[in-house]
Design goal:
This protein is α+β, with helices and mostly antiparallel strands. 49% of the residues lie in helices and 13% in strands. The protein has one domain: Jann2411-like fold (Orthogonal Bundle), CATH 1.10.3300.10. A hairpin with a 7-residue loop joins strand 3 and strand 4. The structure holds zinc ion. The site of zinc ion has 8 residues, from loops. Zinc ion binds next to loops.
Length: 204
Amino acid sequence: MDTDAPLLGEPLPVELMNTVWADRDGVHDALRDRDGAKAWLRTVSARTDLLTPGDLDRLTPSDLDRLAHRLVDLRDALRRLAAEVTEDPRPHASHPRALDAAVTALNQAAGDTPRWSALSWTPGRPPARHVRAGGPPASAAVSAIADEAVALLTQDARHRLRACLGPGCVRYFVKDHPRREWCSATCGNRARSARHYRRHRGTT
Ligand SMILES: [Zn+2]
């Protein structure tokens, strides 16, 4: 099963923030239960060098519950921190926790499962890097996303993080082009038709 969260090609911490998303039917949470969390991790597993779909299939329901809980906790912390960085004006977009609690949650997630690189070198073949983890691959992947979030929030990319101000949108994106205004083409189209509607309503 694929996640129902639309993936936008953003860095993984931003994709995780965007597991809360909205459409005409309202706000959705792609991590609302353990199956949702598993589906999201399965969809992004190819973008980690720690996790395969098979690793997820080996987890017991209680493992998955714990994992889903950690993923939601990290997601909520990241949305709170993104709201701070972007001075997010959208009501209800951010998680209402305190800033220091969000920082603590992020740091706990980053430190939960250690990861390191190992070199393998078979004579006659090029040297290769493998990522090793001191815990289950899925936990290590969540820690790696937290780690990437720390880098995102402390490097120049922070200044390009944006809250999408498309009508009803609750997503974030990294502004990777000077003219980019929206998280997606859908939001751009919606914003244009809303402007069009307002203009025409004003003249009739
Ligand atoms: Zn948007």
